[in-house]
Structures are given as structure tokens and as C-alpha cells.
Amino acid sequence: MSAPVQLSSIPTIAELYKDGQLRPASPKPTDASLPSPSSLCNSRVSLIRASITTLATTSIVNAANNSLLGGGGVDGAIHSAAGSSLYEECKTLNGCETGSAKITTAHALPSKYIIHAVGPIYYRARSESPDRPAELLGSCYRTSLDLAAEKGGSVAFSCLSTGIYGYPKAEAAQVALTEVRRWLEEEEEAQRGDGGRLERVIFCLFDANDIEAYQEWVPKIFPPTDDDLPPKEQATEATATTDQAPAASTDTTTTESSAEKLKPDAEDIDKDWEPVEKPSETASEKTTDISEEGEQVEAPDLGGSDGEKIEKPETKDVLDEAAATGKVLPQSSLEKDW
After folding, report:
1. pTM of the predicted model as reported, rounded to 2 decimal places
2. Where does the record place Basic and acidic residues bias (predicted)?
């Protein structure tokens, strides 16, 4: 089993901006409804690419189903790593409603608690009303944050409802980030600047498409402050705000499109990431997907249940070892074929 990933090794959004692993939104958003830069929020929110079962945070949030008795994907990975005693404790909770969450101890996991959040099945919720999926998903994040705050310390979220429940990843990222930002600001106001009850909120990502969605929405919901930017970008930002009619910039770091920024340079291919050997793939295997544990599973139909069981292969895929290392969001990872 891999060594637990400690909170001290998980970078904040502010640190990721300074290291160049996150870039400001380009072009700069003009939507007045988007929040302003906040050093407080950026220092309390983190991103990491890892298996959530390896994080030594106070709490982790599981993408559970209504039964809370385990299933496929991240839910199955958490139950498997925590041990059978988690199943026994979950049996005493009598399930959970969609849009809500319940908490248990973490058993064999390196975290202390597991918050089991039941997100919506996207197309089923959308059949009720267009806004219903976001209402239920937002409720999951708020309820989970309230439960985590009772325990204090740190909480790490898996991506809720984006797997077999079919919630579009970019839309889910927007809801998750917006709810966390709103909750942090409300908590800070209630605490009157005393630092709040949660030291850190972590978004734990695994799938490359989840990473792309968060790299799109983090700069919009948690834009960088001037202090978060590397010195070169600070100077560029200052020039852009003082010039009435700035000339076209020749600095490719500030003029390239958002899509181009996600493409790695050759020198970045091995930066902050351990290369892994891609498993061989036959024609019959091209319809499979990769689970949280790095297992190959049948690609499910949208609108199914997150609680559907999957059978484990005899041996784990090499991706399990790569995901468990806790490497942080290198841009080059977006070019990998996961």
C-alpha cells in the first residue's frame, strides 16, 4: 500500500498559480457575476490528482449511492480500502436521500472520517426541471461541508455524480467550485475573520477530463490575486491595466488561448509526474473505462446507478500505482491517454 499523502504536501490554489501549474483565465472573464480574487479562499482550497483513498485528511467525501453500502467506481474503491467494517457501519445508517450526506469513521483508510454524499442521477433529475441537477448537487457539497466542519481540519472531495450518474464534468465542476467558494465566504463572515472551522478544502481528481474541467473553472471561480501570480505575469497584468490601448503582446504565456495553455511543452512532459507504461489495448477493450482503482470496467449507460457492482480483475492496472503517488495537476497530464 502506498504511503498516505499528507496535507502538507498538497498545494493550495495560490501555490499552483505561483508555480505556473494553474493559469489565469484567458481571455479575462467579463461576467460581473463571477467572484473577485480572494487570498483567503485561494489559500484554503487545493487541487490534487490522486486516489482519494490515499489522502491523510481529516475527512474525505465519497460519491455514494442511496443505500450507502458500496458500489462501483470511487465508492467501491473506498469500501474496498476501508475494509468490511465500513460496510457494517453503513448498514446502521438506513441509507441516504439524494442531495444529502452522512458521515462514518474511516476504518482502515488514512483519513479519520468518510462523508457519504449521494449526488443526483443527472438525466433523471433534469427530467424534473432544468435546474434540479444543480440544486441537488449543490446540496451535496453544502451538506458535506457542514459535516466536515463539525470535525474540523481538512476535507477532500471526490467528483460527485460525474461517473455513472452522468453529470457533465464541466457543469459539475462549476457547481462544486461555486458552492465551496460561497460556503467559505459565509463561514468566514460568521467566524469574523478567525480563520473558520476548516483549514483546507481539497478537490481530489483522477480522470483527465475532470482535470481539464477544473483547470477551466478554477480560474473563474477562484481567480488569482496579484500576489498569486509569478513575477512575469504580475508585470504583464500591471501593464494591461494601466495602458488605455495596449499593443498586441508578443508574450506567448499571456496571448495563447486557454486550450493552448493546456498543451504541455516538450520540456514539461516529465515535470512533476511519473511516467507510466500504457496498458496494451485490443479492439474488444476499447469500450472499457478506468475506475478510481485503476480497474478496467464496462462503460456504463448514463442514468444507471453508482451502486452497480463491478468485478475486480485478478491484478490491478499499473495506473493504481501512478494515481496513488499524489502528484499534483501537471499540465502535461492532460496529454496522457487515461
Report:
1. 0.70
2. 258-289, 306-319
